[in-house]
């Protein structure tokens, strides 16, 4: 479903050139729940942005559903996102002036889905997420866990091929974090394909497998004994070994 080959992303200013992603090769099959884990600044959010067609790589190949999409124009990427992708963000990204119902309905409005069909789809997903009784509330009237449930409902309402989650528990306490992760695990068990970025080893374990990033490259799991990637990476103090082949199967 998702395949990247020698994916590179460079950020260039007048004074410096920074390599955010360095020859990244990954595969994600339909129905998988893949965690992408690494310390801050390792390139995981950059990778998710490219997978979500919010940005383009500097070089390399990105195939989605068997189609090369790395050279798509901004308009083509936007159309493809609407048809195939759902997003869950750390900061929820709900619109404060819209009700729960209206926030969840928004992707269907963008896709010009008929109103009667929108009503049916939004009603069904709100029931599935256990927030139908909050349909007329506004984001500021909800707890963090409830807001993230609304964000998950919005990501799912258009039945996307892939759900991309960027630190979905980052703004939640541990109890609500576990609740959201359990929800994602349940959605995956029902057939949803999920790619999630996280810096937490405990949350990464909810996935079927984990891809580790360090300094923009796919690496083997660190062997420092505690299973955690360092928050402030010190390469000379950690035992990272580059994979002979960076393709993850």
Give the secondary structure arrangement, pairings included:
Blueprint: E1 2-12, E2 17-28, E3 33-37, H1 44-51, E4 59-64, E5 67-68, H2 74-84, E6 85-89, H3 100-110, H4 115-128, H5 144-156, E7 162-166, H6 174-189, E8 193-198, H7 201-204, E9 209-214, E10 217-219
Parallel strand pairs: 3-8, 3-9, 6-7, 7-8
Antiparallel strand pairs: 1-2, 1-4, 4-5, 9-10
What does this structure look like?
The chain is 31% helix and 24% strand. It is α/β, with parallel strands linked by helices and 249 residues long. The strands form two sheets. A six-stranded mixed β-sheet has the order 6-7-8-3-9-10, sandwiched between helices. α3 packs across α4 and α4 packs across α5.
Summary, kept brief:
This protein is of the alpha/beta class and 249 residues long.
Tell me the distance between the termini: 12 Å
**Secondary-structure element order, N to C:** EEEHEEHEHHHEHEHEE
The radius of gyration over CA amounts to 18 Å
Helix count, DSSP H or I runs of 4 or more residues: 7
Q: Give the assembly state of these chains.
A: single chain
The overall strand count is 10
- Could you list the spans in which at least 5 consecutive residues all have pLDDT below 50? 232-249
Question: Descriptors for this entry?
Answer:
alpha/beta
């Amino acid at each position: 479903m998702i395949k990247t080959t020698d994916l590179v992303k460079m950020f260039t200013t007048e004074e410096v050139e920074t390599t955010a992603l360095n020859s990244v090769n990954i595969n994600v099959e339909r129905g998988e729940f893949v965690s992408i884990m690494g310390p801050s600044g390792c390139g995981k959010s950059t990778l998710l942005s490219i997978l979500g067609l919010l940005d383009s790589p500097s070089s390399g190949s990105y195939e989605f559903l068997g189609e090369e999409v790395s050279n798509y124009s901004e308009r083509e990427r936007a159309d493809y996102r609407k048809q195939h992708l759902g997003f869950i963000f750390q900061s929820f990204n709900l619109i404060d002036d819209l009700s729960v119902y209206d926030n969840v309905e928004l992707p269907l409005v963008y896709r010009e889905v008929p109103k009667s069909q929108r009503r049916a789809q939004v009603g069904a997903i709100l029931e599935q997420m256990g927030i139908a009784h909050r349909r007329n509330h506004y984001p500021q009237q909800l707890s963090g866990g409830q807001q993230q449930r609304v964000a998950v409902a919005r990501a799912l309402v258009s039945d996307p091929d892939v759900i991309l989650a960027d630190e979905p528990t980052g703004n939640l306490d541990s109890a609500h974090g576990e609740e959201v992760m359990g929800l994602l695990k349940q959605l995956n068990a029902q057939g949803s394909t999920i790619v999630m970025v996280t810096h937490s080893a405990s949350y990464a374990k909810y996935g079927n497998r984990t891809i580790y990033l360090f300094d923009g490259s796919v690496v083997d799991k660190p062997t420092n004994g505690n299973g955690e990637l360092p928050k402030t990476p010190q390469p000379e103090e950690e035992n990272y070994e580059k994979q002979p082949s960076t393709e993850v199967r």
